[in-house]
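Notes from hallway chat w/ T.B., transcribed later so I don't forget. T.B. wanted the structure written out for a chain they're using in a teaching module, and asked if we could keep both sequence and structure tokens in one place. Agreed to drop them here.
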Amino acid sequence: MLTALVLGGVAALVLAGLAGYNALVRSRNQVTEAWSTVDVQLRRRASLLPNLADAVGAYAQHERESLLEVTRARGLAEPGAGVAASARAGDEVSRALGRLLAVSERYPQLRAAENFRALQDQLADVEDKVAFARQFYNRTVLAYNNRLGVFPTAVIARAFAFERAEFYEADAAALEEVRLHMQRAPAARPPT
């Protein structure tokens, strides 16, 4: 009878250990999948950059530096670079886009161009998706990291070397508001 109880207790511990291990694996896979979604949206945004830069460049040939910044920022987004590196690259792309769109404000004919407006709409859509994907990723990371820290899965996590996942965090400069300084056209002078 005592042997049966001991064997039953051991079997329960083994089953609980397996369930905990499987839950950790599922959570880690969810983090990977959530990051994949962020990465896809960042790539979509990066693929819009050349078209946007070309549209602005057609109207503003002398704004070469702003166009080069966008190109450099796009090059920072290396595939598989990891969460922190991708976050830095994404922040740089956001700043470059802000500067590029600020340049576009100086050219009313550009803002009125149908192609440019369509690109801006696509960019706004992608930015919304990036923000949602980042939020979903961070929620998934929180759930996974919480699972790593609570008993009894914390014991299993340590035994099988599960590592904490990184949150997607914007740097301080990326959190600053982009200000557009729009110049008004000079008022028409009355005929003399």
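Follow-up for T.B.: The two ends are 113 Å apart (CA to CA). Might be a good example for the class.
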